[in-house]
């Protein structure tokens, strides 16, 4: 799909393109609708007073051959109450627009949804959100189907109207960012949706190698395999993967975009358990197939690395895909095992299904060698987080208020919401062990917090945040698959950091 911005007039559009015009509730016309109304001698107001469209979100009315307008088709789209559209409503409007344009087989469309009195910031976000929303509605994962169910989309080109030269630069940047982020979200969704017999740790490594080839100038990758983990003393990581015949691999992606390549990097660590059966503490059968998504944290990190390179963001970022498979078997680790981690702290395994923290704690120790500016881990870590926050918000836990606030701001900007949970010391007691330094599960309630408390014992040396995306990384209700969250949030956080935008 091609996107562009243009200073356009409704009456000057080519007759081949469909025009999309906003109508607000209580019969309010957008500025373009008003123009249209004037040119057509009150055609629109007559439709409105006949009650043919009220302007409610989701409503639309397709018009053909409006008097004095060269374009054959005009799609009126309900946008709700003027000045009350939030990101969610706006995305709905865009989804409806695309569905309708698709229904009529339109190849080219000009969207007159931006008002001349909008701030530059509003223009940027409207265009960027539109691009992300368009990709979302057109997404399908059908590579394993012989008969593709979704009809192909005829739409090839979308133009956003703007009203001044100054908006041209903002619009172009919004398109560039929107496209890169939308592509990244698709990458994360595709990876998450991949079946676990194909998407294992070696598969993820082959992707990172490919990424390094594509962006030779900025990206360097390498892996830490089981042998090297052994040398480094990452015994908890090795233990988790020991029941699987698939190798455990930690893939490291180094992106250097900062003018000073020695600047301390931001480190992103993604949980990449390509299938989590629970191990010896086997999970119940219901929805066990959802545990192919237990690598969505790693998928989001991989996606963000793509976006950084695509946009050449001036930051140094290291992405780590901490991958392995948690399986039962004669070589699997057991409840009762005591593991010595790379940090020297010992962990008593009380449940082999609390495996995410065991691989993450090793990755969190490993990354100290980079002298990170900050470290963020992204993990489908606990069912308890799903109980606490449902599928609306990811859990945010951090040892640094400034970092937590930056993430909260980026989450507000992108509608990729997070909610901060505490990690105060009273919770720490819940993971004390009788036989080792730490137990891998907490006694009592607050499982999302005790899991983060576990990680916090390995992150004392740097600013750190943990995103528990167990409830948000995939959609189990409608069964539509991976959501691509929190790619939007993370890339915005990085864009903000790079000062490219705000
Ligand atoms: N990958 C799961 C977390 C999960 C469960 C995400 C359900 C989404 C839906 C994680 O490895 C896990 O199994 N966690 C256990 C921890 C428990 C044993 C302390 C959980 O949440 O049940
Ligand atoms: Mn588990
Ligand atoms: Zn897991």
UniProtKB/TrEMBL annotation:
Active site feature: 283, 357
Entry cofactors: Mn(2+)
Cytosol aminopeptidase domain boundaries: 351-358
Manganese is among the record's keywords: yes
Details of cofactor binding: Binds 2 manganese ions per subunit.
Main location: cytoplasm
InterPro entries assigned to the protein according to its UniProt record, in alphabetical order: Leucine_aapep/pepB, Macro_dom-like, Peptidase_M17_C, Peptidase_M17_leu_NH2_pept, Peptidase_M17_N
Reaction it catalyzes: Release of an N-terminal amino acid, preferentially leucine, but not glutamic or aspartic acids; Release of an N-terminal amino acid, Xaa-|-Yaa-, in which Xaa is preferably Leu, but may be other amino acids including Pro although not Arg or Lys, and Yaa may be Pro. Amino acid amides and methyl esters are also readily hydrolyzed, but rates on arylamides are exceedingly low
Positions of Mn(2+) 1 binding: 276, 353, 355
Subcellular location, record wording: Cytoplasm
Keyword terms: Aminopeptidase, Cytoplasm, Hydrolase, Manganese, Metal-binding, Protease
Binding locations of Mn(2+) 2: 271, 276, 294, 355
GO molecular function: manganese ion binding; metalloaminopeptidase activity
Pfam families: Peptidase_M17, Peptidase_M17_N
Keyword Iron (UniProt): no
GO cellular component terms listed in the entry, alphabetical order: cytoplasm
GO BP field: proteolysis
The enzyme's E.C. designation: 3.4.11.1, 3.4.11.10
UniProt record similarity statement: Belongs to the peptidase M17 family.
Function field: Presumably involved in the processing and regular turnover of intracellular proteins. Catalyzes the removal of unsubstituted N-terminal amino acids from various peptides.
Name of the protein in question: Probable cytosol aminopeptidase
Organism: Candidatus Erwinia haradaeae
Lineage per the UniProt record: Bacteria, Pseudomonadati, Pseudomonadota, Gammaproteobacteria, Enterobacterales
């Amino acid at each position: 799909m091609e996107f562009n911005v243009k200073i356009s007039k409704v009456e000057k559009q080519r007759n081949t393109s469909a025009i999309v015009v906003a109508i607000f509730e209580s019969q309010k016309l957008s500025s373009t609708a008003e123009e249209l109304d004037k040119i057509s001698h009150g055609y629109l107001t007559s439709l409105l007073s006949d009650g043919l469209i009220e302007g409610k979100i989701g409503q639309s009315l397709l018009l053909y051959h409006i008097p004095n307008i060269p374009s054959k088709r005009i799609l009126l789209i309900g946008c709700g109450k003027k000045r009350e559209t939030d990101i969610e409503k706006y995305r709905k409007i865009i989804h409806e627009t695309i569905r309708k344009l698709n229904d009529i087989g339109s190849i080219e469309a000009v969207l007159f949804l931006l008002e001349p009195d909008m701030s530059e910031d509003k223009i940027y976000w409207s265009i960027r959100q539109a691009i992300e929303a368009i990709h979302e509605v057109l997404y399908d994962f059908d590579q394993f189907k012989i008969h593709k169910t979704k009809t192909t989309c005829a739409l090839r080109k979308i133009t956003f109207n703007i009203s001044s030269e100054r908006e041209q630069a903002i619009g172009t940047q919004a398109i560039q960012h929107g496209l890169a982020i939308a592509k990244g979200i698709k990458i994360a969704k595709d990876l998450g949706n991949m079946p676990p017999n194909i998407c294992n740790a070696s598969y993820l490594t082959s992707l990172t190698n490919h990424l390094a080839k594509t962006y030779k100038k900025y990206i360097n990758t390498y892996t830490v395999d089981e042998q090297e983990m052994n040398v480094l003393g990452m015994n908890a990581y090795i233990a988790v993967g020991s029941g699987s015949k698939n190798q455990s691999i930690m893939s490291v992606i180094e992106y250097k975009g900062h003018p000073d390549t020695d600047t301390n990097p931001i480190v992103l660590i993604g949980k990449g358990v390509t299938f989590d059966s629970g191990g010896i503490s086997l999970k119940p059968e219901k929805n066990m197939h959802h545990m192919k998504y237990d690598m969505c944290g790693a998928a989001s990190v991989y996606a963000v690395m793509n976006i950084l390179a695509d946009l050449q963001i001036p930051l140094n970022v290291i992405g780590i895909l901490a991958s392995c498979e948690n399986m039962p078997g004669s070589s699997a680790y057991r409840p009762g095992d005591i593991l010595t981690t790379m940090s020297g702290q010992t962990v008593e395994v009380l449940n082999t299904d609390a495996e995410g923290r065991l691989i993450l704690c090793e990755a969190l120790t490993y990354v100290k060698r980079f002298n990170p500016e900050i470290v963020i881990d992204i993990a489908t870590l606990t069912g308890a987080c799903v109980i606490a926050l449902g599928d609306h918000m990811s859990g945010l836990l951090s040892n640094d208020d400034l970092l937590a606030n930056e993430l909260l701001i980026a989450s507000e900007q992108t509608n990729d919401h997070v909610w901060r949970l505490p990690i105060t010391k009273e919770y720490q007691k819940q993971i004390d062990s009788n036989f080792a330094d730490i137990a891998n599960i907490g006694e009592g309630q607050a499982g999302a917090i005790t899991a983060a408390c576990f990680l916090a014992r390995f992150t004392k040396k740097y600013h750190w945040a943990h995103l528990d995306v167990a409830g948000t990384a995939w959609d189990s209700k409608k069964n539509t698959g991976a959501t691509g969250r929190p790619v939007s949030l993370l890339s915005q956080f990085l864009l903000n950091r790079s000062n490219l935008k705000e």
